[in-house]
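The instructor's notes for this session suggest beginning with a concrete chain rather than abstract definitions. Hand out the sequence below and ask the class to guess, before any prediction is shown, which regions might be ordered.
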Amino acid sequence: MLTDRQLHLLNVIVEDFVDSGTPIGSKKLIDEHHFNVSPATIRAEMKRLEDFGLIEKMHTSSGRIPSEAGYKFYVEALQEEFPYEPNFDINNSDALDFRRLAQLIARDTRHLSIATTSQIDMKSISQIHLTYLTPTKLVLIIVYENGNVEHQQISWQVRLTRLEIEKMNNFLNANLASINKSNLNQEGYPSIKQLPLSHIKSEIIKKAKTNTNTVFFEGREYLYEIMDSDNLDAIRETLKLIDSNTLPDLIESKQSNQIEVILGQEIKQNLQGISIVTTPIHMHNMNGNISIIGPTQMSYREIFNKLSNLHRMFKED
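After discussion, reveal the predicted structure:
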């Protein structure tokens, strides 16, 4: 656990290194940030941060730079400083709204931006048939408006009569409009409330539901501006990552309700010097993420600020 002074010192080292690109020494910290302690105390605190693995020494300089663990500690504090609201109040959204967000954030941050979307659709159902097999087993048959038919055998512990199954069948077909919108509610129907209707309803929706995934990349040209031109391996590996099919899955695996940062080896075992900052987006019937990819030495505070203002940017554009 860091003391307040150590945390402040780490934040200053990270932000100074991001701005200057040069290792940070104790003299620079004292001269530019006016710590009300002696130089010996600053050096001792830097030694503790180094022992914690949060900063590390460069071979060519007496200064220190943040380690991946140091960046991680730093961005966790930013998550508290920049609370995020993932829900966008936009009706009839589509994948192009996500692309527009990616274009906005790429242009505003001059970083490569990625929009990943998952649209949930329901295949339109025209008829449902429940066919009695035994008191604890039936066959569910779904007929779609395009003529396709799916069927599935369903079992449960409760014993049902043919009349009870007929009641469920009638209820489901009388409420096809609600089923097609995934919002069927059986409240107010006491005659079937005790029946395993919820289980059957979930099986119907599971079969009828489809996901359409889309990925947009915006601002590829900025990648060469923000990456260290001497680090060709990092640029090459980043381009490989972009062209692979693994990036959307990686981003989705880190999804939460706040801004997240994926650093270096968290992205790929042999990939260092790269970070992904990602944030969830929820629009009407679509979910997704807007992500920024760039060097580990990026201005996380600026990126967090931009992402936390996506709602305003979207409305003003």
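Then share the key points. The first strand starts at residue 55 and ends at 57. The chain has three domains: 4-75, 86-121+211-315, 122-210.
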